[in-house]
Amino acid sequence: MSPLQSGLLGELDPTSDRAVFRQIADHLRDAIGRGRFGEGEKLPSEAELVEHYGVSRMTVRHSFSILQGEGLVHAEHGKGVFVRPRPPVRRLASDRFARRHREEGKSAFLVEADAAGSHPQVDGLEVKEEKAGPDVSARLGGVRRVLARRRRYLLDGRPVEFAASYLPLDIARGTQIAEPNPGPGGIYARLEELGHRLDHFEEEIRARMPSPDEVRTLRLASGVPVIHLIRTAFDAEGRAVEVCDTVMAADAYVLAYQLPAT
Amino acid sequence: MSPLQSGLLGELDPTSDRAVFRQIADHLRDAIGRGRFGEGEKLPSEAELVEHYGVSRMTVRHSFSILQGEGLVHAEHGKGVFVRPRPPVRRLASDRFARRHREEGKSAFLVEADAAGSHPQVDGLEVKEEKAGPDVSARLGGVRRVLARRRRYLLDGRPVEFAASYLPLDIARGTQIAEPNPGPGGIYARLEELGHRLDHFEEEIRARMPSPDEVRTLRLASGVPVIHLIRTAFDAEGRAVEVCDTVMAADAYVLAYQLPAT
DNA sequence: GCCGTCCACTTGTCTAGATATCTAAAGGAG
DNA sequence: CTCCTTTAGATATCTAGACAAGTGGACGGC
Q1: Please, which residues have CB within 8 angstroms of residue B69's CB and are 6 or more apart in sequence?
Q2: I want to staple A261 with a disulfide (CB 3.0 to 4.6 A). Which of A198, B85, B168, B198 is the partner?
Q3: Are residues A235 and A122 in the same domain?
Q4: Residue A51 in 3-state DSSP?
Q5: How many CB pairs lie under 8 A apart between chains A and B?
Q6: Are B120 and B62 members of one domain?
Q7: Is A3 strand, coil or helix?
Q8: Nearest chain A residue to B100, by CA
Q9: Residue A2 clears pLDDT 50, i.e. is over it
Q10: How far apart are CA B21 and CA A155, in angstroms?
Q11: Residues B164 and B224 in one domain
Q12: Taking CA B133 as the corner, what is the angle to CA A250 and CA B188, rounded to the nearest 5 degrees?
């Protein structure tokens, strides 16, 4: 174990009433903030910090767990604790469902990812008829049974988002929307061909910590929230024709909207 | 200490390779999910769980810390660990800056909160001229110095959001925008009176875990992310006339947007 | 009735170990 | 040179205790 360079991290303040593990977390956070430890770089090992601060190992681990909860660092078993690199973010523009994009024939996800130079993938596709949950049913105007399309999206091999689309059965049953591959332009193009000219979308955005299921599905590091987006598509007659429920890894996305001032 | 009702929580599976503290966290999470412990209700004390599972206290505490990180529970020193109640959420509609609302004379925050039956407050108001940070400068088209307006918003005494508005000095200096109270309709009404007819807004949304500063300012429970919203206002000539940087407690907000399908 | 003290119960912090498991590099057998 | 074993160092899990500090009720003095 190489000795820790003095001055790299400060010393504990025994007069402070701030808990020791918090002081150590503060030191490390500060050092990361100052760029003393760069992205992806390894922090001092637990043993080194035990030595440096003269505390027990559990105390140092507690400090690390604080920083993990903040999403600043991540631990790798047998290797060390590393500054978490900020992954490239995908920008979701508010015009991503504009008709002109749909007419190019590829789905919104694939078009955008290609443009950003990433390798996109779709995964775990599942299409089936099922009973609508209460929330979905309410948003679709009370329908009981829906066609559900679920899928997961990956960027350069990393899962970033999974989504479920729900459509009323009287619209989707027997159409290409009920096929695994909905064809060029995606289900929105098919909806318009079926006479449901899309008028507008409503999106609701929440952020929260992920459930254990979501951690698994999106392979989330600890300290990474999710963005929960619920989009409802309305046709020209004002009918809700689709609800899309999307959960995104928050560190992979920026959502961008343009609002009129009128 | 009252004995734990048997059957309330399961027993450990010694053959499982899942860590004990995770199994306990799973049991508690499951029990909360099933409504076995309702919102605001007290979970069994550490000592009771130590007794029930036959493990050491640190192990039980580890389980609790997992659930805290997920935002499911919160601990109160000397009292117990409680299921975290879901606070009422405030819905931010995408037309909240529409001119027709501005003309009513009250600020967007106060109007909405009153409508929702809550008691709104604004706090820590600070108005001053300063050097623009690189991000703000870039968004405002390269201006170096700006007027900064900072404030914190509270709902029924709970801080839910703090925001900083930045305006180019050549627009704001010497106007009512530079006063603590910008007058009826807020700074957007003043901007329009000054000849900057607002054309549209751009909003960028991110979600992440809060910094320690943000935890303090918003009095955030652990396991609650923040929504970071950056809005840029453009006038009819296409000039960026304001950047507003807002950090919101994620558990207090739903953002709603309406998008055209064209 | 009121007020303070005391006590039981609670979570918060910290220690000093033990054992397990994973990683990567060094070293030896073939 | 290749492949396997060993080994050092790293994190993961768990224990059994110690003392600190906040909460709230019981109880007694007044």
Answers
A1: A69, A209, A222, A223, B222, B223
A2: B198
A3: yes
A4: helix
A5: 135
A6: no
A7: coil
A8: A262
A9: no
A10: 33
A11: yes
A12: 80
Any domain includes A37: yes
More confident residue, A111 or B137: B137
Q: Find the Å distance, CA of residue A42 to C1' of nucleotide D3.
A: 31
With a cut of 70, say whether residue A6 has pLDDT above it.
no
Residue-range definition of the domain harbouring residue A235: 90-255
pLDDT digits (tens), chain B, 262 positions: 445 554 577 889 989 999 999 999 999 999 999 999 999 999 999 999 999 999 999 999 999 999 999 999 999 999 999 999 998 888 888 888 777 776 655 666 776 777 677 788 898 889 999 999 999 999 999 999 999 999 999 998 899 999 999 999 999 998 999 998 888 888 998 999 999 999 999 999 999 999 999 999 999 999 999 999 999 999 999 999 999 999 999 999 999 999 988 7
Residue at B1 is within a domain: no
The B 78-97 residues near strand D by Cβ under 7 Å are 78-79
Question: What pLDDT shows up at residue A91?
Answer: 84
A201 and A95 fall within a common domain: yes
Percent residues over pLDDT 90 in chain A: 73
Q: Which amino acid is at B148?
A: A
A58, A97, A224 ranked by CB distance to B259: nearest: A97
Does A190 score more than 60 pLDDT? yes
Q: Are residues B95 and B214 in the same domain?
A: yes
Distance separating alpha carbons of residues A32 and A8, to the nearest angstrom: 11
Cα separation of A136 and A198, whole Å?
Answer: 19
Tell me if B95 and A259 make a contact (CB, 8 A cut-off): yes
Whether residue B248 sits in one domain with residue B198 = yes
Buried b / exposed e along B226-258 (16+ C-beta atoms within 10 A) = bbbbbbbbbbeeeebbbbbbbbbbbbbbbbbbb
Q: Do A257 and B261 touch (CB under 8 A)?
A: no
Residues B33 and B143 in one domain: no
Longest dimension (CA), chain A: 73
Question: What is the dihedral angle through the alpha carbons of A184, A189, A194, A195, rounded to the nearest 10 degrees?
Answer: -150
How many domains does one find in chain B? 2
pLDDT in tens, A29-85: 999 999 999 999 999 999 999 999 999 999 999 999 999 999 999 999 999 999 999
Is there a single domain that holds both residue B67 and residue B129? Answer: no
CATH number, domain with residue A26: 1.10.10.10
DSSP B9-69: B----TT--S-HHHHHHHHHHHHHHTTSS-TTPBPPPHHHHHHHHT--HHHHHHHHHHHHH
Measure B130 CA to nearest chain A CA, in Å.
23
Q: What is the pLDDT of residue A216?
A: 94
* Statement: the CB of B61 is under 7 Å from strand D: no
Residue whose token pair is 């929440």: A206
